Amino acid sequence: MNGASPPNAAAVFVGVPQRWWLYLLACRDGRMYAGIAIDVEARFAAHACGKGAKFTRANPPLALLGAQPFETRSQALKAEHALKRLRPAAKLEWARRWPASCEGRPPAGRQGGG
Predict the structure, then answer these.
(1) CA distance 37 to 104
(2) Cα 51 from Cα 93, distance rounded (Å)
């Protein structure tokens, strides 16, 4: 390539719409954490390594409970706000409707102790 740097991910997917994901994590202290990301698996790994949000640095994630796709960041942020306002039982019901292991959703990532 004559010393040129390899194309970055954005260059490879030019013209492909970026999908935003609302995700829900089960954390070590028994609580749940909701967030948004383009790459849920990478974000889960960041949370698990203590490089994610302040909450997950103190309460590492154990599992990805669910993930819902959105076409825009704005839509994902609005859905995140609504999800965070739900009671824990309703959050788990949301995760049952948007399980992380269904086709078209990001893989469940690492599970187990964090």
Answers:
(1) 15
(2) 28
Query: At 34, which amino acid appears?
Result: A
Structure-token pair, residue 45:
């790994």
CB 46 within 8 A of CB 96: no
Q: C-alpha angle 60/50/54, rounded to 5°?
A: 80
Predicted confidence (pLDDT) per residue in 54-100, tens digit = 999 999 999 999 999 999 999 999 999 999 999 999 999 999 999 98
Task: For residue 47, give Cα distances in angstroms to 12, 17, 23.
Answer: 26, 25, 12
104/53 Cα distance (integer angstroms): 26
Structure tokens given for 17: 């719409």
Radius of gyration (C-alpha) of the chain in whole angstroms: 15
